[in-house]
Amino acid sequence: MTVIQQERTAEELKALAEQAGRDLEDASALQILRWAAETFGKRFCVTSSMEDAVVAHLASRAMPGVDVVFLDTGYHFPETIGTRDAVEAVMDVNVITLTPRQTVAEQDAEYGPKLHDRDPDLCCRLRKVQPLEEGLKGYQAWATGLRRDESPTRANTPVVGWDEKRQKVKISPIARWSQEDVAAYVAEHGVLTNPLLMDGYASIGCAPCTRRVLEGEDARAGRWAGRAKTECGLHG
User: Is this model's pTM higher than 0.85 or not?
Assistant: First the structure.
């Protein structure tokens, strides 16, 4: 595989992203990730919440040893940390764990306990958004597991787009997939998934802000239930 690793300006990256978004709209997830690997090489990474390892598995097929970035917020379910450890042990990826600048105890001391209940946007910014921005500095492009069918806020997710806030190419190789597509890929390839997915959770984040979903609810309904908040800030 010929890997082009060159410095590009933000304008060049944006134009590249917009063109690729058009060219790759109908491409398979693996084709999209092979394009990313060939275009960005080691300046490309995958982010994973360890809800499942589908995108990490796909990326490892396109680019063995690919960096998989995981945010350890300090509030994760034990099952999520276990999934991360299992992915690191059995898949051909390089798991990189990012942590916030403050431990939960240090944050509690500065802002008061249970900030996630009082100001969830600030809590997400401190424990997710800021660490990710630091962790992505060395990359030109990052891949996510966003899908259009997850919620109305994600319905227009491009397979390749421009992350204006971070000035990076943002790749969502399974944007066009359904939950049935994900399940079929998991079954075909024996991909690791978070055990909580079998226990009524459809979207898994930090334990204090995640609940099981009810029949008929969309996959994101269990996140920040009872609040207008639907996103942590990583994707918008």
Answer: yes
